[in-house]
Every structure is written in structure tokens, then in C-alpha cells.
Design brief:
Number of strands: 9
Largest sheet: 5 strands, antiparallel
Shape: elongated
Strand content: 25-35%
Structural class: alpha+beta
Order of helices and strands: EEEEEEEEHHE
């Protein structure tokens, strides 16, 4: 059955593996599609495991969503470092004969940096929803040309393949601009 994989604004790398399989998962970068057999699948989005397996029993679209908390983690690391540096400065000043309140300020700086780090450091979350229809971008198009590979995502010989609905790595007809560095 044909399963389309889509994401919101940013591309996501889908990893799809049957729950009872230990083999290599199917990989593609959204927007892409793959032919899968009905069954339960474990998915990952950009390497982040989706909380629970999803049961696929008919063709449709998987909509992936990744809640990245990277900025929060970076802020937590910053707070930990700044709190440690300020705390170290205050404690050093107190140890060299400074006012006694600098011990409390140093301890408070280190403690607040640590607390902010613990509160801000959270893992990313991935979720997937299934819609039993084609996505709007392929609705009404003819079926894709048959290929030896089950996915329109990147393949080892993607530059040699020509498809009706190209995936990542395939060549598309029309005018384009390419920048290479």
C-alpha cells in the first residue's frame, strides 16, 4: 500500500520499521512516499522515537511533527555556565577577604544556574498522525512510474532514475538554480 509522509514547514527524516523486524528501517526525507505492507510500525523523526507504534492498514498520509527543545537546552547550558562562573567569582572574592555576603551570592549563583539547567533541559518529542487519504500535493496526479526501489526518497542511484513524482535526490524538469560550495 502507498503511504505518503509529510511534515509541516520543515523537512523531517522519517525512519519506518515494522515493530517485529530487526532489519534496516526505510528512510526518506519528507515530503516522500513509500510502499509498505499493512502492519504495526515504529517511527522516528530526525532520530527521535515516536512515543507509540502506529498501525497502518490502508493507504494514506503520515503527518509528522517534531517538537524540538534545542533552544531550551541551550539556554539551560548557558544558565549553568554563567551561574558557575559568577558563583566562582563571588566565592573567590569572599575567600580573598571580601564581604561575607559574597559567599551567599556565589552559592546562590551556582544553585540558580543548576536549577535553571534542570528545569530547561528537556528531550525532543516526535508525534505522527495518520490521515487515510492522499495529501493535497499529489491529489489528482497519475500514479508514479514503477521503479525497482519502494520509495521515492533518496536511493543509491537516484540521479539515474526518472520519476513522475520525484523525491529527494531525483531530478525534476523545469527551470532551477543550484548553488554549490
Amino acid at each position: 500500500m502507498q503511504v505518503y509522509m509529510r511534515s509541516g514547514r520543515e523537512p523531517l527524516r522519517f525512519s519506518v520499521r515494522a515493530t517485529n523486524s530487526r532489519g534496516t528501517p526505510s528512510l526518506c526525507s519528507a515530503p516522500c512516499d513509500a510502499k509498505l505492507v499493512p502492519g504495526d510500525y515504529q517511527l522516528r523523526l530526525n532520530g527521535v522515537m515516536v512515543e507509540s507504534p502506529i498501525k497502518l492498514s490502508r493507504p494514506g498520509t503520515l503527518e509528522g511533527k517534531l517538537d524540538s527543545r534545542e533552544a531550551s537546552r541551550e539556554g539551560g547550558w548557558l544558565a549553568l555556565n554563567v551561574g558557575g562562573i559568577l558563583g566562582g567569582v563571588f566565592i573567590t572574592v569572599a575567600a580573598l577577604g571580601g564581604p561575607s555576603w559574597t559567599y551567599a551570592a556565589g552559592g546562590g549563583s551556582v544553585l540558580s544556574g543548576g536549577v535553571i539547567f534542570v528545569l530547561a533541559y528537556r528531550a525532543d518529542r516526535a508525534s505522527v498522525s495518520f490521515v487515510p487519504s492522499e495529501p493535497a500535493d499529489v491529489r489528482g496526479l497519475p500514479p508514479p512510474a514503477p521503479t525497482d526501489h519502494p520509495s521515492t526518497g533518496p536511493t543509491p542511484n537516484a540521479s539515474l532514475e526518472l520519476k513522475d513524482r520525484p523525491g529527494l535526490g531525483a531530478r525534476t524538469p523545469g527551470l532551477g538554480v543550484r548553488f554549490t560550495f
